[in-house]
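User: Round two. Same drill as before: sequence, then structure, for each protein.

Assistant: Same drill it is. First protein:
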Amino acid sequence: MFIQTRTIVVEKGNADKVVERFSKEGPIDSMDGLIDISVMVNKSAKESEEVVVLIRWESEEAWKGWERSDAHFQGHKNSRGQSKPEYVISTQVSMYEVRAVKTGKAGTPS
């Protein structure tokens, strides 16, 4: 499994805008190898808000398929020249190769 995270720090009161953006249907949703996308808000943020988007892929190759896809390139082409929203303080992207997964009782099929 391969995971990409995108951590977006925004001015207080704007997390819902980011959640809405990443919760909409898009071309990524029909990509082969996409497991799921989770959009999370850090409940302990004080002066700002933090939204983490976690995208799980079956493999790094599946993720690379998305990165090389026409839909991905078109999305970047469409947003070229647009500045980030004023309420976005910072964005950090990280990539992880999953080495182990432990399933809890709730994750075990009945």
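Second protein:
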Amino acid sequence: MAGPLDGIKVIEVGQALAGPLAGVILADMGADVIKVEKPDGGDDARLWGPPFVDGDSVSFHSNNRGKRSVTLDIKDAADVAKLKLLAADADILIQNLRPGIVDELGIGPDALMAVNPRLVYCSIWAFGYTGPLKLAPGFDPLLQCYGAVVTLTGRPEDPSTFCAPAINDTATGMWCVIGALAALQQRDRTGRGCVVDASLFESAVAWVQGPLNTYNVTGTLPQRHGTGSNLLVPYQIFETADRPLCIAAGNDRLFVKLARAMGHPEWCDDPLLADGRKRAANRHAVVDAMQPVLLTRTRQDWLGIIGEAGVPVAPVNNIAELAATEQLQAMDMLRTLPGSNLRVVGLPISFNRERPHPAGAAPKLGEHNAAVFSTSRHE
């Protein structure tokens, strides 16, 4: 079945994570994504291992499935001309090269939109298209630090702590796709493309919008609460007799259900625990009341008791446990790449209750040079 973006042509000039992630989202939704790689080694992410499958990293396979690979030396005038020829009938171009280099090489938005006024030109920056850090390079951990999220993660006594997933790269890839799809809608009305800019910095700021907004009102730095929320209590991980679980009683109604399920309805009458504001102000009193009770039973016991009461609760899974869950299987999130035994996480969106299948495996470096460039010359 054709994907929702069938017929859309995308040129991806980038590497690592944010740009390729944007490209693979579009590819999984049916777009023809032509990945432009440097002739000498290609995308750096090909070497982001171990593990490796068929010579390339699993990360590369996952984020470049279903694309076609061509090689161009964009510092060479003849290859720049080839890139412009590819862009002449493209719908979207995505680039996340070193800030400023596309204009130096003559492949920036002005140059390529002069060739194709209908082009949606997407740039992924480290710190954004303007400001004193416009030309600064950046990777996800740098932006986790600059964007302050490391100061919000962990317990008060912990050092600054990274989020393990590359949250800024991932978010920026998604923001890029959202902007590109909106720009296509606008093009349908106006007949003209536009420039879409996203950056790891903007994504980083978006992640901390709550604490930043609060700071702008109060002037007070947010405190870290380990696994807990700074606004909702109880909303955190607790220990049980054997394994940890997470309880998220995010309002007064849920707290009443939780207290009754745990055999302590009197908590609802305690002046320190009676409503959400009081529980947030007396976090330690809530935790001190709940934790000894939770230690009297196993995690599986409490998952049943608390879950049956209608209170949100979940086990703290490791990756192996996540991989074995019935829910992961039921949602059919893993995809076997065509022509390979490699299974990767698929697109986290379904259309008519069907998750898109990758159009193909990740390409070998320059695998589609002949097909793509012969078509471009013919056109």
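The mean pLDDT is 94.

User: Perfect.
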